[in-house]
Amino acid sequence: MRGIFDEVFCREKVAELDYLSAQPGFWDKQQYAQEILKERNLLKDRLDRLDSLQGMLDDIEILAEMSEEDPESAEEAQEVIIQLELALNKMEFNRMLS
């Protein structure tokens, strides 16, 4: 069973779907083409959210290092942690609905 964080699977699947959509005759079967693009877009959206989460984690790490010399950085890191938690909760909620 694949989880919402299966980044490798998502990236491989997007690449596979991109390859399929670039093939000659792809649009000959409109229904099939639309299903492929819908799946690709859903996976790409998931990857974009994962990239955003990774960016937040990177920011937290940098702010934590800076907080040793700058107390305001610790406060900012705490704010990013709250944003990260909210984003994770939203992803989990959306996963349960799907």
Descriptive overview:
Helices cover 81% and strands 0% of the residues. The chain has 98 residues and is mostly helical. Helix 1 (7-21) runs antiparallel to helix 2 (30-66) and helix 2 (30-66) packs antiparallel against helix 3 (71-97). The longest helix is centred in the middle third of the chain and has 37 residues, at 30-66. The relative contact order is 0.10.
Using brief descriptors, characterize the structure shown.
98 residues, mainly alpha, 0% strand, elongated
Map the helices and strands.
Elements (H helix, E strand, L loop, with lengths): L6 H15 L8 H37 L4 H27 L1
Helix pairs in contact: 1-2, 2-3
- Beta-strand content estimate: under 5%
Structural class: mainly alpha
Query: Which residues sit in consecutive blocks of at least 5 with pLDDT less than 50?
Result: none
Cα shape: elongated
Order of helices and strands: HHH
Number of contiguous helices: 3
Helix content: over 70%
Give the rounded overall mean pLDDT. 90
Brief overview, please?
81% of the residues lie in helices and 0% in strands. The chain has three helices and no strands.
